[in-house]
Structures are given as C-alpha cells and as structure tokens.
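Ticket 4471: requesting a sanity check on a complex prediction with 3-methyl-2-oxobutanoic acid. Repro inputs:
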Amino acid sequence: MSLTQLRDRGASAPMPRVTADVLLQKKRAGQPITALTAYDFPTARLVDEAGIDLVLVGDSVGMAVLGYENTLPVTMEEMLHHTRAVSRGVRRALLVADMPYGSYQASVEDGIRNAVRFVKEAGAQAVKIEGGRKHVDLIARLADAEVLVVGHIGLTPQSVHRMGGYRVQGKTAEAMDALCADAQALEAAGAIAIVLEGIPRELATVITARSGVPTIGIGAGPDCDGQILVFHDLFNLTFSAPAKFSRRYADGAEFFSRAIAQYRDDVAGRSFPSDAESYHLPREVQLPREVQTESDAEEPHLCKA
Ligand code: KIV
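Returned structure tokens:
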C-alpha cells in the first residue's frame, strides 16, 4: 500500500543532527540558516530531506491547517499532536515547537510544564516563545531545565489584538530601542536563536549585528542570520494573497486542484480504476455463474491477469 512506501526510507545511515551549536557556527561563518514550518509527517519529510536546517511546528498550524482565523485558539493538545507527526518525519533538522497562546502566559510554572511536554512527549528539541523581556524569567528557568528556547519578537501574531492587526513593528525610535532591548534580554536569558518578524530591514540588521545568537527573519529583510517562511505560503495553499515578505515557489493550489478535478472526472467517467489497477482472483478460483459476464464464461479460468 502506498502509505507503507511513504514510511520506508530504505537503508538509512545515521544522520548528524542540526544542533543549536550548528546554528551558531553558521551565524559566525556568515552562512545563512534555512528554516521552514511543517505540520505533518509528509511535509516534515520533504522539508527535512531538502536539507532545511530548522523545522518549526508553528502555531500558524491553526491558520494554515486547522482553519482558525488567527493563532489564538490553538491548544497544547493540537500542538503536541502536530509536533509528534513532524518529529516522526524529521531526522536531521533542529525541531522547534511553538508554545501556543495560553500555555506560558499564566505562570512560569505553566510555561515550564508545557515546554517540557514538547520535549518529553513530542520529540521537540526546542520550543519557541513569543515576546521579549517579559518572558526572561521563564526562558532562564527553561535553560536550567535543559529546554532550548527560540525567542520571537517584532510582529508576534499572538499579540494580534494588542497590535490592532498584523502590523510591522519597530518603526519609531522608541519601538526600535524596545526591540533591541528585548533581543539582548532574550540572549542574556539563554535563548539559542531569535525570530525577528515583521520589522524594518534596518532594525533587523542592527539587532543581528549586536546579537551573539542567530536571528531568523520573516518579513525582516535579508540581513538576518537566517530566514523562515510558512510552508503553505511557499506553495500558495493559504487561499489569500501573499504578504509582501513572502515568496511563492510553486502553485500548489493549482497543482492539487487540477489533479483532484482529473480524479473526479476519471471516476465519473469510469476510467478509474482500470483493470490493471484492480486485483484479480487466482486462476483456479471460479466466479459463481450468476456474476459471470459473457466474456468470463468463455474463459475456463476467470483471472485475466
Ligand atoms: O507560527 C509560525 O509559523 C511562526 C513563524 C512564522 C515564525 O511563528
């Protein structure tokens, strides 16, 4: 069955895993870090086997896959479910799981308990937390608890209501200072990398130059240490116009729609499945007379294989 083939990777040599240190070495060597989201087993395999360094199970799963209006309704159980599926498909990339809204805001203890679940129950190597200075206690405690943390500042989608929409952040001198301070605080607290989302290129350049840990940009210009995009944005699978910062690499919607329409027509027109796509009785087994067709009746054995 095709799903069995999907699981089979053939003879598999052990794969050296991307670690936090590998990302740091890339920053220091000026080699761009590649990162992409994935939410399920097949896309995780495709992304990992393409050699992407960091795979993020983003809470963007809520919008990209689950059909929510924003990321706020995404639950721990949904994130764990998708992270488990992705972890079964990733062998090389650093696997980062997003802490969903509500899983770390109430208390540091909540944050630790939930972050540990991603590592212990779902195979994540790190968690990502939105917000800057206000979460340094949690990040420091997670570092103590051996949980790697990726920070995320700028346009943080979990703050959509406070921001009044998905708006570029850090456009005033005051906001720039605040984001620089956030980045420094995250690094000091032990974050292994910082996602910079939706900020002016010039600000991302400054933060990246000052930061001792890698910055990974999305809508933050080309001068970050790495770039991340949402899988469904790359493939036109969002049913909406792309954001300015995003680039479409293929038209997945067109590709899938054409194939689905072809399948529908083949079934409706009885050209699928063909005889070659059917199983047959063994030659020695006869069909009961009442279900034989005329041509069956002419054959001594009814198998046409
Ligand atoms: O949830 C997500 O996909 C993200 C990335 C876009 C950084 O947070």
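Notes from triage: The two ends are 19 Å apart (CA to CA). Leaving this open until the requester confirms.
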